[in-house]
Amino acid sequence: MKKLNSMNKEELLELINESQKKYDSYKSKNLKYDMSRGKPCPEQLDLSDGILDCISSTSGLKAGDGTDCRNYGGLDGISDAKVLFSQLLEVGVNELIVGGNTSLNMMYDCVSRAMLKGVLGSDMPWGKLDQVKFLCPSPGYDRHFAICEFLGIEMITVDMNEDGPDMDTIEKLVSEDASIKGIWCVPKYSNPQGITYSDEVVERFAALKPKAPDFRIFWDNSYTVHHLTDTPDQLKNILESCKQAGNSDMVYIFASTSKITYAGAGIAAMGASEANIEFLKKQLGIQTICYDKINQLRHVRFLKNMDGIAAHMKKHAAIIRPKFDIVLDILDKELKSGGAAEWTCPNGGYFISLNTMDGCAKAVVAKAKEAGVTLTGAGATFPYKKDPRDRNIRIAPTYPSLDELKNAIKVLCVCVLLVEAEKLLAGM
Amino acid sequence: MKKLNSMNKEELLELINESQKKYDSYKSKNLKYDMSRGKPCPEQLDLSDGILDCISSTSGLKAGDGTDCRNYGGLDGISDAKVLFSQLLEVGVNELIVGGNTSLNMMYDCVSRAMLKGVLGSDMPWGKLDQVKFLCPSPGYDRHFAICEFLGIEMITVDMNEDGPDMDTIEKLVSEDASIKGIWCVPKYSNPQGITYSDEVVERFAALKPKAPDFRIFWDNSYTVHHLTDTPDQLKNILESCKQAGNSDMVYIFASTSKITYAGAGIAAMGASEANIEFLKKQLGIQTICYDKINQLRHVRFLKNMDGIAAHMKKHAAIIRPKFDIVLDILDKELKSGGAAEWTCPNGGYFISLNTMDGCAKAVVAKAKEAGVTLTGAGATFPYKKDPRDRNIRIAPTYPSLDELKNAIKVLCVCVLLVEAEKLLAGM
């Protein structure tokens, strides 16, 4: 196919005509595919069903240190879970809290408590200030942005480069504006691009000199072991880097097993300096007596250690890698020669990020929905759901079956061609 | 024994002498009993171990409506759990949210979100007001009071009568002061007295005319099925009463299975008007994707229905009733004739509330601790940990064994006599 932007009127009309026919044919099939969220598919969930058998009424329900996991107590997690998660988070056993079933909730709690009470080193609660701002490298994770919007935290969009966020802008902004209290990062296999921050980016994060003494990096390492290939990306240890830069209290690290075991019934954990953890535990002790220690024990017995996790994640990759391949394959075939879009080829994570021509994403997503293919809302990957160039579409390949996926991505490609050709034609 | 307050100097000296001997003998035994919290004992937890066997890798993990409990989704709980908890909370299936492992956390979330964003009907977030106040019927549950203290909510102590809180005072205060936004209640088998609110008290609650349009009753019905006898107390339905009084949005009801199944790994739920629930779900959707639906399913399969819960609670009562009896028996024998203290004889719940002579509770608790018996801190049952008459001691009989309990309560009684006799002597 000729490049779309070098097509003349006739060629565009022909492309529209041809694409419309294909679109109509898909539409007549009454498809109903939901690709809106990064959900594991049932076959992935099946991989963890053994977790239900590793604890029973006869198996003993005490943690390594003798704690009865059935009773109250153990605010920051059972000893065995602390060991496992300290390895996953790459922090010390005194540098973490093992929590409940979702890291999103832990992040929300950290921000909401900061608004109500401040963090270690705050002069006052963030919520008492005239303005609180967060930096939001974008495209990014919509639920991070939703927390800020809900709590009235002003979001400042920062561009993403190929090796992480635009650090020049971040360094400048945080050093000048004391109302900037935080930044959201998905540093490995980022949502939605699948980018892993380079060592230089991590070091520059660790060496930030924020004007706000209580600035925090929210380092959401959700996809740390979620490799798609045998040559996984490596992410430099942020807490170590922060310590070396004399900024040990500047980072909160989050992770969970939501996409390792069960998406709704996993275990979340957060890592930070010992001083941060001590401070947070005092706040947390008001909020709850303990998290579900039985589920923590279940996870330790099932996953065992980092080798166990790595072996388990290979099974996930065997299921979802073909799904990523098929998406990339169809995008290549349908869109590459015409230059209709650009997309990422991630080494891990849950998403492929696709950029259309400027001003087309909303129309493409709407058109796909009309044909029965629900994608993540256009704009969702940006603060306030506003993609300044209206071009980013997040593709979540994991949940649908291979057949469904094949159809869904073909529909997406036809919609891209149709919307773009019409736009080019209208601009002639 | 003669009444302490009618003893002369010699009689008091003799009592002190005799009690001191007993005290020293206990002290020499190096006891180490912890009666500080209302924890179930291991035998009670054993009753629920079957909950671990009712879900396995081969048992099917779909809720009644087909939801895969392993995946994301279902913010307000699985359909089956909604049915069960609607019966426990005595609300409709659209009038509740089934949550995570602790109702304390649900209550904290409700108050903290109210501070940050307000509740249904708020003109502005509570935290933006100059003052926010809660009424605290006392003695009450220390963790309720800790939430207020943490969030800077001013607490106003309200006396407890034998049929519930002093409603005259409550009616007056809430109708006059718009900064009073809430009240904490444990309406059935109250912590620590074991009192159940009378129908009249419930009706007067429902008919309150608060000056604040966004006033909420936090109705913590933790002990709703936790009977100790075959003639359980009855509590009038607060949501129904509120509806009849035209105040349907005024109450949040909380309950959990923490003291039905596992204390650290149960299921919490809250009930409220449909309008409240709709409003709360929108806020909750920012905070989390879903609670642990697998544990919800586990609870439904294990407890089945209200008959299942009732049968299960009888087993609990069979274990803990003898513990309450032994405490009451020893208190009767050691303290009654001397008039040294007053205490409650609850029909359910987890505590016995003991009042010493004014000004003695702190000294008694300290003395017991010196002899190896840790009780709930004196004052803990009041806002700001300040018991205005320094007389209330919360006894938590469930966790220790019968033998431990026998010794612990004897120590407590000796401490009461010793402290009171010394105080009376000093005042002569």
Entry keywords:
428 residues; 3-stranded antiparallel sheet; 8-stranded mixed sheet; homodimer; alpha/beta
As residue ranges, the low-confidence spans of chain A are: none
Query: Average pLDDT across residues of chain A?
Result: 97
Structural class of chain A: alpha/beta
Rg of chain A computed from alpha carbons, rounded to a whole number of angstroms: 23 Å
Adjacency order of strands in the biggest sheet of chain A: 2-9-8-7-6-3-4-5
Q: Approximately how much helix is present in the residues of chain A?
A: 40-55%
State the distance separating the first and last CA atoms of chain A. 20 Å
Subunit organisation of the chains: homodimer
DSSP, total strands of chain A? 13
Please tally the helical runs of chain A, counting DSSP H or I stretches of 4 or more residues.
13
Beta strand % of chain A: 5-15%
Shape of chain A: globular
The largest sheet of chain A, given as strand count, sense and whether it forms a barrel, is: 8 strands, mixed
What pattern of helices and strands is seen along the backbone of chain A? Answer: HEHHEHEHEEHEHEHEEHHHEEHEEH
Greatest interface: A-B, 55 and 55 residues
Overview of the molecule:
2 copies of one chain form a homodimer. Chain A is 41% helix and 14% strand. The first copy, chain A, is an alpha/beta fold and 428 residues long. In chain A, a hairpin with an 8-residue loop joins strand 10 and strand 11. In chain A, helix 4 packs parallel to helix 5 and helix 12 packs across helix 13. The longest helix of chain A has 31 residues, at 306-336. The radius of gyration of chain A is 23 Å and the shape is globular. The mean pLDDT of chain A is 97. The interface between A and B is large, with 55 and 55 residues.
